[in-house]
Each structure stands twice: as structure tokens, then as C-alpha cells.
Specification:
- The chain is of the alpha+beta class.
- The chain folds into two domains: 193 residues, Ribosomal Protein S5, domain 2, CATH 3.30.230; 132 residues, 2-Layer Sandwich (Alpha-Beta Plaits), CATH 3.30.70.
- Helix content is 38%, strand content 21%.
- The chain is built from eleven helices and 14 strands.
- Strands 1, 2, 3, 4, 5, 8, 9 and 14 form an eight-stranded mixed β-sheet that branches. Strands 11-12-10-13 form a four-stranded antiparallel β-sheet, sandwiched between helices. The chain has a two-stranded antiparallel ribbon with strand order 6-7.
- Strand 3 and strand 4 form a beta hairpin.
- Helix 4 runs antiparallel to helix 5 and helix 6 crosses helix 9.
- The radius of gyration is 20 Å and the shape is globular.
């Protein structure tokens, strides 16, 4: 039997610009896709069994049985690392209502780590989008972005135990800069002239599930306080898309949103805002710029927003002096894409404009 050509799909990471936590309660959030991509390669199995390789998860040709759901004797750590893979496979199989052929699955998320630490750019969401796209393409199914996002979001949410807004997966599917409201198709946005944004490494990575869990534990402990804190965030998030059109207004909004996150974190004792975040926020304020956490917070990357009146060279110098590392990311990166398919074995890698937000 002639082997089918490999299927390769990739999807970008993300950064939350505004709307973290509020998006979980139905408020809009603004996210950008970044040019760090998860890449999934599917090849025919040579022995009639599924195998998974994911070097960044320390998984090397793991045998998964004839249906892909195996791994007998897996310990808790391995089961945790398989959550996204298993959830996507289950959702795609249910959608197709037929079994997939045994495959060699290779998942590469090298782009999402630095010095062995995850950057917090949404690697699991990018994997969910790319793997969903690749599995469907392997059997000749191509979905519209809205349906693909719906399927990948459902799988990723299952892998996270029912938490998660889906904004990270939607960004991975659609790419660009989007306004996203939970379980609704996103709206594309354009970044304004006069506003720049860069990502800053703030720690060694954090567990989104743990941070969100602590916030909702606070909600159970103090429902009225939780409602007040989330209401404040939601009110600010509602203005985000409009304020994005004016650089100074958006910088002010970013400052106010971070202050509201600080209040939520103080009440929830979740660990969203670290001492490092406070230090960088103060350093940015000295230059008329704004630093804020991005996404769940904790030890992940943060964002630094500047306008033309800011001496960016001096600002960067001060950040470097306190050991903060600015990483150059291309923003508004393209969404999920098939790089090769059985019918297009020489497909090209998706392009990215490599822009900072400016």
C-alpha cells in the first residue's frame, strides 16, 4: 500500500492585551496572535498502532494502541501531559463519527519555551488548534474557521477541566488581533498608529488552571467581592475595542485594567500579580509607559505599552538594569494553517510580518 504524504499543520501562540479573567464571565477581551508556532506532523503508522512524540513534553514515540487512546500504566504526570492530545482526538473522532487510521503524531512546541521554561504564550491552545486541523485534513475534511474553532475550543476546555474562555484557541485559529467574547466568533481589529507593545519575560511560567481555580475559590468564599472585582474588570474590558483606536486612551485603559487585576489578586490571593510585576509596572510608569501582566499572570510574560512621547531606549535600559528580558515577537501573526497535506506535499510555511505592535 502506498503511504500517504505527511500532514503538517501549525498554529500561533497568543498574548492577552486586555480582558483577562473578565472574559471568563462573558466580557470581551483583546488578544493578538504571535509568531511562535506549534507544529503538528501526522504520518502513517508502520505497525498499525498510534505513536506520539512531543519532545517538549518529554514524550518520545509513546505507544498509544490501535485507537490512539492507549498508554497503559501511565502515571499521573504522563496523563496530565496527554490531556490536550487525548481531548482533541476524542472530539475529532466524535465529529467524524468514524475511526481515524493509526498515525505517528509529532508535536513540536519548541517556539514556546526559553531556557527550558514555558513563556506563557498559549502552547496548549496552539496545539489544540493545529492538531484538530491536522487530524481533519488527514481524512480530507476542511472546516470553516468558526467550526474549527468551536471544535478545538471544546477539546481544549475539556483538557482544562472545563475552565478557560477559549480566547487563546480562537486566536490560534483566526490569527491577527481579535476582540473575543466567550463562545462567539471573534471580530478582527487593527492596531493603531502611535502605540507600541513588546513582551517581557517576568518569571518561569505559571499554571493557568491553578490561577483560575484560586480566583473561583475566592468567588465561592466571597461572592459579592468576586462580583465587584470581576464587574470592575468587565466594565473596563467593554471599552477596550473602542479605546484601541487611540493610543493614549488605550495606554490609560491598560494601566487601569492592571490596577483592577491587582485588586482582584489581593482579594483572591491567587498569585496573578507578582512582586516582579509590581517592580516592572513602577519602572514603566517612571517613563510614562505601562507594564501589565498578560493572560493568567503569575510567572508568565507581561506586556509593555509605549507611545511616541516615551524614550524607549532609556526605558529598555532601565528594564535591562533590573534583569527584565524583552523578547521580540511578531504580533498579528497568521492563524492555523496547513503547511503540507496529502494533496499538497510541498506547502510553504505560513508567513508572519514579524511586527511588534506599533
Amino acid at each position: 500500500m502506498t503511504a500517504t504524504a505527511p500532514v503538517i499543520a501549525s498554529a500561533p501562540g497568543k498574548l492577552f492585551l486586555i480582558g483577562e479573567y473578565a472574559v471568563l464571565e462573558g466580557a470581551p477581551a483583546i488578544l493578538t496572535a504571535v509568531d511562535r508556532r506549534a507544529r503538528v506532523t501526522l504520518s502513517d503508522s508502520s505497525d498499525g498502532h498510534w505513536h506520539l512524540t512531543a519532545p517538549n513534553l518529554d514524550i518520545h514515540r509513546l505507544a498509544l494502541g490501535a485507537d490512539g487512546h492507549g498508554a497503559p500504566g501511565a502515571d499521573d504526570g504522563l496523563r496530565d501531559r496527554l490531556r490536550v492530545y487525548r481531548a482533541v482526538l476524542a472530539h475529532v473522532a466524535a465529529y467524524l463519527d468514524s475511526p481515524l487510521p493509526p498515525l505517528e503524531v509529532h508535536i513540536d512546541t519548541t517556539d514556546f519555551a526559553r531556557d527550558g521554561h514555558k513563556l506563557g504564550l498559549g502552547s496548549s491552545a496552539a496545539v489544540a488548534a493545529a492538531l484538530t486541523c491536522a487530524l481533519l485534513a488527514r481524512v480530507g475534511v476542511e472546516l470553516a474557521p468558526a467550526r474549527l474553532a468551536e471544535l478545538a475550543i471544546a477539546a481544549h476546555r475539556d483538557a482544562q477541566g472545563g475552565t478557560g474562555s477559549g480566547g487563546d484557541v480562537a486566536t490560534a485559529v483566526y490569527g491577527g488581533i481579535i476582540s473575543y467574547t466567550r463562545d462567539q466568533p471573534p471580530a478582527p481589529l487593527v492596531w493603531p498608529t502611535g502605540l507600541a507593545g513588546v513582551a517581557v519575560v517576568t518569571g518561569t511560567g505559571a499554571s493557568t488552571t491553578d490561577l483560575v481555580g484560586r480566583v473561583y475559590t475566592y468567588g465561592q468564599r466571597d461572592p459579592s467581592g468576586f462580583a465587584s472585582d470581576l464587574g470592575r474588570l468587565a466594565a473596563l474590558a467593554e471599552n477596550a475595542a473602542a479605546d484601541l483606536g487611540q493610543a493614549l486612551r488605550f495606554v490609560r485603559l491598560a494601566r487601569e485594567y492592571f490596577e483592577a487585576l491587582i485588586a482582584l489578586d489581593q482579594h483572591a490571593e491567587a498569585g496573578i500579580v507578582s512582586a516582579r510585576h509590581h517592580q516592572l509596572h513602577a519602572a514603566a510608569a517612571d517613563h510614562g509607559a505601562v507594564f501589565k501582566s498578560s493572560g493568567a499572570g503569575g510567572g508568565d510574560v507581561g506586556l509593555l505599552f509605549t507611545t511616541p512621547n516615551v524614550d524607549e531606549t532609556a526605558l529598555r535600559g532601565d528594564f535591562q538594569a533590573v534583569g527584565a528580558e524583552i523578547i521580540e515577537l511578531g504580533f498579528a501573526a497568521p492563524g492555523v494553517a496547513l503547511e503540507t497535506t496529502p494533496d499538497r506535499p510541498t506547502g510553504a510555511r505560513p508567513a508572519t510580518d514579524g511586527r511588534r505592535l506599533r
